[in-house]
Amino acid sequence: MKATKEYIQKKFDEYNRLCFDGKLEPLPIRLSRARTFLGQVAYMRKRKWNGSWHYYNFVFKISVLLDLPEQEVEDTILHEMIHYYILSNQIQDTSAHGVVFRQMMQDINQRFHRNLTITHRRSKEELEQDQQVRQHLICVVRFKNGQTGITIAAKTRLYRLWNALPKVPEVESCRWYVSTDSYFNRFPRALSLKVYKVPQEELKLHLQDALSLVKTGNVIQVQK
User: Fold this and answer.
1) N or C end of the chain, less CB within 10 A?
2) Could you tell me if 19 and 84 are in contact, meaning their C-beta atoms sit under 8 angstroms apart?
C-alpha cells in the first residue's frame, strides 16, 4: 500500500492514544517520494546555554515512493513517532537510535506485538519498484582479488572520487560510466569512498547502454 495523509493521521492518532498516552502534539504531515528513507521527523534545533539542543518546528514525513505491506507502513509511522516523542520532549538521547530510542522501541514491540527495527532492509521487490529515470555517475571498480564493485558518485564528489578510488590499495582498476538504467537507483549517492560489491554478469547486463566517461585535464566528459 501507499499511505495517504488521511491514513497517516488516523494511525498517528490511534498510536498516540495507545502507545504514547495521547501526549504527542499534532504536527504537519507531508508525503514524500524520497528513496533514501521510509519515514522521517524533520525539525530545527538551536544550541542551549548548557551545550544541549532545543528541538522545534517538527514535520512528519512518510515516503510513498514504494508500495509496501501495510504492517511495514504502520511500523514506519510508529518508528518515527518514537523519534518525535524523544525530540519534542527535549530528551537528549545518546544518538539518533540511542539508549532511550531502543528502550522505547523494545517496550512497544513487547507490549503491542510489533516488529519495529532500527533500520529497514529493502527487499528485492521493493528495490525493483523504483523505476524513476535518473542519471548515474558510476565507477566500476575491479579489485585485486577478482571481485567487482561500483560507486555511484554524487555530482559534487565526482572529481574527488575519480582521483581517490584508484589509490585504494585493494583496487586494481577503475572505469567510469554514465547511465540512466533504473537498476542503479537502489544504490546511494556516494559522498565518500563507498564501494558496493555486485556480480559481474549482473553489472554487465545493466551497463549495456551506458556511456564511458574520460577525464582530460580537469574536464570529465563522455568518451567520443
Assistant:
1) C
2) no
Residues 6+ apart with CB under 8 A from 59: 27, 28, 29, 30, 41, 42, 43
* Main-chain phi, psi angles of 139, to 5 degrees: -105, 120
| C-alpha Rg value of the chain to the nearest Å | 21
* Separation between Cα atoms, residue 1 and residue 71, nearest integer Å: 10
Q: Look up residue 39 and give its three cell numbers.
A: 519515514
Residue from 172, 167, 182, 111 nearest 147 by CA: 172
CB atoms within 10 A of CB 179: 19
Enumerate the CATH 3.30.2010.10 domain ranges in the chain, comma separated.
5-125
Nearest alpha carbon to residue 60 among 24, 102, 20: 24
Contact 24, 81 (CB under 8 A): yes
Encode pLDDT of 141-199 as tens digits: 999 998 999 999 988 999 999 999 999 999 999 999 999 888 888 788 888 888 888 88
Residue 123's pLDDT band (cuts 50, 70, 90): low
Alpha helices in 53-98 (DSSP H): 70-88
Pairing state between β 136-143 and 219-222? unpaired
Between CA 78 and CA 12 the distance in angstroms is: 8
C-alpha dihedral sign at 174, 176, 182, 184? positive
